[in-house]
TrEMBL record:
GO molecular function: phosphoric diester hydrolase activity
Record keyword Signal present: yes
UniProt cross-references to InterPro entries, sorted A to Z: Alkaline_phosphatase_core_sf, Phosphodiest/P_Trfase
Gene3D superfamilies: 3.30.1360.180, Alkaline Phosphatase, subunit A
Signal peptide per UniProt: 1-24
Keywords from the UniProt entry: Signal
The keyword Ribonucleoprotein belongs to this UniProt entry's keyword annotation: no
Lineage top rank: taxon: Eukaryota
Protein name: Uncharacterized protein
């Protein structure tokens, strides 16, 4: 043994085992995240008592409300949640892809999901951050997941198709898929999009029983999720976060602002309108001031800005994609360029100024990282990205989130998972001290 005693060998073995056991413990018990985006779930749940959401309040965290980004459309809002960036920073500034230089415009929400250039602008969604740092991440029908971003696509993905038939996939099936990825393939995070209640809100409004029935379907899916987590023995490692992108408000019949009642379409070089309560346009050369001045005073329910006048609180105007003149109508109003005889109108809508309470969204969280029965003060939807990074012990990409706004919801402070950093120094100290006894 060349002068090394049995006692010293025993101490060496003990030291190696000490580190090995702790390291294995960290690996096996690392926390995971299931994030669900429930499209259109307003902060007040439209007055519905949803038992599984109430259980989440009792067993976890509920924010009074979540401050979503402007504009309160699905693609800008959900991509802000995924990246932690305001729309002016991530660039997906509308539900429709458009390029004013080329004149190209996406024909639909679903088609926009396949325009790589709309999303791959330097922003880094949470699944890309996870994969770049050695983890596994899955996405189910989530904004931006159809295309490579920074050359990275999700480890596994259920994509959004052009027909929209993908949204018929039952919520329970989405949950089963997510959990299979976690249990069978050790995924760190799965990001899931629920198109409900938004789809039915648009069709039936905020006060219709069919909308209420949909809300209870979402609630039942959340109950099913926690049952499945319990069955799989994942309760101690999976953190469930549920948020929404925006609220909803009924649009009143007959309350329309029609842009071409005030300006000539021939004075417009490029326009994005007839989609939600906001418009943006570039006038033809020489008509900029006339178009702006006319629209500025066109209607008391219409607020119009030059791009450079957009309020700083919007975090929207500082992007080259935003057009020269921008405007929105007040909540409850419709905005169109003109009305054709066969036009139909949404009964409830979103996209309005994010200052209105009817546009505020929801946040719930439950799991080992979160306090129990904790009511959180409102924070920002852009905070969720860095929140998830902390839970997964990831280094976040540059983002607009602020830990100060949400840190009070955590039951665990500092690093998200148990770390060898605290145990290893103790092992080293005891090892050196013990060895010195035999020297």
């Amino acid at each position: 043994m060349a002068g090394i005693s049995v006692s010293k060998i025993s101490l060496m073995v003990w030291f190696v085992v000490c580190i090995g056991v702790e390291t294995a413990s960290v690996t096996n018990d690392k926390e995971k995240v299931i994030f669900i985006l429930a499209d259109g779930l307003r902060w007040d749940r439209f007055g519905q008592a949803l038992p599984n959401f109430i259980k989440m309040e009792e067993n976890g965290v509920k924010a009074d409300w979540l401050n979503g980004v402007f504009m309160t459309m699905t693609i800008p809002s959900t991509f802000s949640i995924a990246t932690g960036l305001y729309p002016e920073s991530h660039g997906a500034v509308h539900n429709l892809f458009f390029n004013a230089t080329s004149g190209e415009k996406s024909p639909s929400f679903m088609a926009t999901m396949n325009y790589t250039e709309w999303f791959d602008t330097g922003a880094e969604p949470i699944w890309v951050t996870t994969i770049l740092q050695g983890g596994k991440a899955g996405t189910i029908l989530y904004t931006g997941s159809n295309v490579p971003i920074k050359g990275v696509q999700p480890t596994k993905n259920i994509p959004i198709n052009l027909s929209g038939s993908c949204f018929g996939l039952p919520m329970g099936d989405r949950i089963d898929t997510a959990l299979s990825w976690m249990t069978d393939e050790d995924f760190d995070i799965v990001v899931i999009y629920f198109n409900l209640p938004d789809f039915n809100l648009h069709s039936y409004g905020t006060e219709d029983q069919r909308t209420f029935d949909t809300l209870h379907e979402v609630d039942e899916a959340i109950g099913y999720l926690f049952d499945r987590i319990d069955e799989e023995g994942l309760t101690d490692i999976v953190n469930v976060i549920i948020a929404s992108d925006h609220g909803h408000i009924n649009s009143e019949v007959g309350k329309h602002v029609l842009l071409y009642d005030y300006i000539n379409s021939s004075d417009v070089e490029f326009i994005v309108a007839d989609y939600g309560p906001c418009f943006q346009l570039n006038p033809i050369e020489g008509k900029q001031d006339e178009v702006y001045t006319t629209l500025k005073s066109a209607h008391p329910a219409l607020t119009v800005y030059k791009k450079e006048e957009l309020p700083e609180r919007y975090h929207y105007g500082n992007n080259e994609r935003v057009l020269d003149i921008f405007g929105c109508v007040d909540p409850g109003w419709h905005l169109h360029t003109t009305i054709q005889g066969n036009d139909t109108f949404l009964i409830s809508d979103h996209g309005y100024d994010n200052k209105w309470m009817v546009m505020k969204s929801s946040f719930y969280a439950q799991g080992p990282h979160f306090k129990k029965n904790h009511r959180a003060t409102p924070f920002e939807s852009v905070d969720i990205y860095s929140m998830i990074c902390e839970i997964l012990s990831l280094h976040p990409a540059p983002n607009n989130g602020s830990r100060e706004r949400y840190e009070a919801i955590f039951a665990i402070t500092g690093a998200a998972n148990r770390s060898v950093s605290a145990t290893v120094p103790i092992c080293v100290f005891l090892f050196i001290t013990s060895m010195s006894l035999f020297m």
